[in-house]
């Protein structure tokens, strides 16, 4: 396990920010950049990627191309990340040459592999499901003590349900593992949760931590379909989630914003499922429902600015992902127009030219104003049902 050292703090404001990745997360950073007086420089494979129009200079190259990142660094004061599909060893050589990465690479090295991530969380005392590493040395006879069903995960590169499998028995585990030719994979205890929660939190150059309202995420087939803010949980549960976020960011000594996925059990126990060391789908509601969006907050953190206010500007909100449900080239304008008729609705369309099942094409946030906060969850689900009935009809 790597040992974390104290990072060198740069107190000045950095105005030229490089982003590795040019998808919708970088695109939404781009929407917020001008208001902070910062410029974005993007490394991304395709000229049609969403963030390209907001980029002052675009390096068209694979995300894990360190030569391209070296070119990107020439334009930037600091480089941050839209996703985790990077080559840390190659980037470390650039860091040794003086390139500034936020979050820092030493912290990312503990998180990008899901087994390493859970091992680190356990080491610093955060609650996690039982887990173990499934390795080729175990052979084809699968022995573990986690019971069934059990969760099998790729250690790297899995997202939106990809690389994650709910396994019912030993035979299914063996067959699924064999499909990947027996690489090391994470086995994680299946948690029969009551709710799935998420917390977005940021840490600044000066070590301040700002936490957003805890949200509930509703997943189908390991893909997020809707997010309800705030989650319908008691104060004690919310405080536990906030403490987890603060403990993690301070332990890693990171600069930037993280998304933390949590399980809430029927016994009121919180377990950490996964960490995303970047802006996260569960925080998209903040673009329209918070004083400071998660994207502006991340830019504030990595540029050295003080963190902004994370409070809701409404009673609550619901965010619904607009997922591809067919293979097509379509902008679904008529469906979007119909959804836009719902009061207090904000549609973010990512401008992707190709739809395919499960692909995130955009999202909708609807603000909820009510004096009775006990009704937020009910109202949110009713609105989300209406949006999904339009979108998937």
UniProtKB/TrEMBL annotation:
EC numbers, comma separated: 6.3.4.18
Domain ATP-grasp: 118-303
Catalytic reaction(s) noted: 5-amino-1-(5-phospho-beta-D-ribosyl)imidazole + hydrogencarbonate + ATP = 5-carboxyamino-1-(5-phospho-D-ribosyl)imidazole + ADP + phosphate + 2 H(+)
Binding site for ATP: 114, 153, 188-191, 196, 273-274
TM spans (from-to): none
Nucleotide-binding listed as a keyword: yes
Subunit structure and binding partners: Homodimer.
Identification of the protein by name: N5-carboxyaminoimidazole ribonucleotide synthase
Native organism: Planktothrix tepida PCC 9214
Top-level taxonomy: Bacteria, Bacillati, Cyanobacteriota, Cyanophyceae, Oscillatoriophycideae
